[in-house]
Amino acid sequence: MIEHVQLCIREVIQETSDSKTFIFENKDLNYQAGQFLTFLIPSGISTIRRAYSFCTAPQVDEYPAVTVKRVANGAGSRYILENWKPGDWVQCIKASGKFTLSKENVSEIVLFAAGSGIVPLLSIMKQALHDQSIKKIHLFYSNRSANSTIFRKKILKLEAHYPEKLKVTWFFSDSFNIREGRINADFVDSYFTNKILSQKDLVHVFACGPESFMYLAEVRTLYAGVPSENYHQEVFFREDNPNHKPHAFKEGNFDVEIEKDGKTYSFQVPGDRTILSQAIKNNIPIAWSCSSGRCSTCMLKLLEGKVYLSRNETLTDKDLSKGFVLTCTAYPEEGPIILKSDLF
After folding, report:
1. Which terminal residue of the chain, N or C, has fewer Cβ atoms less than 10 Å from its own Cβ?
2. Could you list the residue range(s) of the whole structural domain that residue 269 is in?
3. Cα–Cα distance between 300 and 326 in angstroms, integer?
4. Which of 96, 122, 141 is the last residue in one of the domains?
């Protein structure tokens, strides 16, 4: 069965007018800085799933916490912000996500954050500040205004406490100074040239924000000479009706086996359906969250057969070379298809 976790809310902190942090009593919760929890949220007669990132780090914070920002017309964030209170018990799937900081070959990190994209980056920042092997942390943080900035006071305190290790550059789009209003390629290029002093293969870059923002971060990172495998990004927004179907899917049904927790689940998947959609239809216990190729919760390892990934926003070339696939966007191409879940 999918491992569900019950969490008790210890405290609720109002971060901005449209965001709150929820601190949980569960000290023994197993997670890594930068990961997220997928919550099961009641919605009418059904349940919806929404993923929210940790703003805490297990080596630093006594209690785990996530931060939720209201999304326009967002059923999940609206319900949470209006209903969750201290003492409530909430249900989620165990922590997942690959947006984490390596413990090896990292001397300097650069963080690109826009809006609520700061949430997992604060988690990573806390871990990096705690890790003595990381010598320097650079944060570029973009927002509409100072008042709408999540964690502004917390980050200012961290910067004051670690003046030699942490450098924060703020961007506010309501600023009258155009250079302070929006991050741009010239600024990033100059910063990498003059401020990033480590060997480029020891620099890791993490970005979270709108796609155009992360595109700039990725392109300028690679232009600066940082290896592509050292660039990491987390995509927040979720498409309600993503169009994942390939242009020419295979006809017929394909035999699929999933090996999980010592059990084998066998079922058939039509060529125009994803493996995850048919697994859910057959009550097969696969963990999932975004269902649109933007997280790695449903990742399995392909042992036999061939699949087509219609979207992949999280698996690296290294992951793909090892056979990992996202079942939410995986369409069968050649069978039989055998997948395994416990090879991570």
Report:
1. N
2. 253-340
3. 7
4. 96
Token digits of residue 199: 């060997």
The 10s digit of each residue's pLDDT in 67-115 is 999 988 788 899 999 999 999 999 999 999 989 998 888 999 999 999 9
Do 141 and 187 belong together in one domain? yes
Q: Does residue 318 sit within a domain?
A: yes
Render pLDDT for 16-71 as a digit per residue (tens, 0 to 9).
Answer: 999 999 999 999 999 999 999 999 998 777 888 899 999 999 989 999 999 999 98
Same domain, 207 and 277: no
Are residues 115 and 214 located together in one domain of the fold? yes
Distance CA 256, CA 173 (A): 50
What is the C-alpha radius of gyration for the chain, rounded to an integer number of angstroms? 21
DSSP state of 69: E
Count structural domains, the chain.
3
Smallest CA-to-CA distance from 251 within 338, 335, 337 is with 335
Residue 101 lies in a domain: no
Which two tokens mark 57?
């780090």
Phi and psi, residue 86, nearest 5°: -55, 135
List Cα–Cα distances, 67 to 13, 207, 275, 314, in angstroms: 9, 17, 31, 21
Q: What percent of the chain clears pLDDT 70, i.e. is strictly above it?
A: 93
Alpha-carbon span 228 to 250, nearest angstrom:
33
Question: Does any domain span residue 155?
Answer: yes
Are 98 and 296 contacting, i.e. CB atoms less than 8 angstroms apart?
yes
Q: Is residue 102 part of a domain?
A: no
